[in-house]
Structure formats: C-alpha cells, structure tokens
What does this fold into?
Amino acid sequence: MSKLTWSIADISTLGRVYLRHVLGKMRDIEGSTAQFGLLGKGLTPNYQIRFPNGLVRCFRGVNHQAADVDDFKEGNISEPFTLVEIKEAFDASKFS
It folds into this structure.
C-alpha cells in the first residue's frame, strides 16, 4: 500500500469544515503544527497537533475526537504544517 503525500494544495481538498476543526484544535497558537496521517484514502485523515511547549494531541479525522494514541508512529505521519499553512489551505478550500 502506498502512503499519501500531503501538500497545502492536498490539504485544501479536505474542505473547510474539516479544516475549521483542525484550526480549532490548534487554538490559534503561533508555533503549533499539524501533521496528517499517511495511511488510508485521505478522505478524513487522523491528525496530530504539536504545541510549542511540546504537548502533542492526536485526533480522529472522522469526528475530530481525541485518539487513543499518544503520538503517531514515525513514517505514518506527514511533515508538520504551520498554523499559517493550515490557514492558507483553509482559505483555498471549498465549502465541504
């Protein structure tokens, strides 16, 4: 199974509703980053938010509820995207 590759353009295809939840989980904290799961079909990927103080919170993409894991396994998570980049993807996304 090939793994997904995420870019800002790819993230924008997730839609405004999904990305609004991701932004909400980032709490508008500068220095926070979001990373998206690389497994599955990429429709509602699980993701993790890493805060500047080192705290990592993981979420299920389908319902944006906390996931049971402390951290994603290396190799199954995208490169980090900054708050500014997620906002850019949100602005480029469609209402879905």
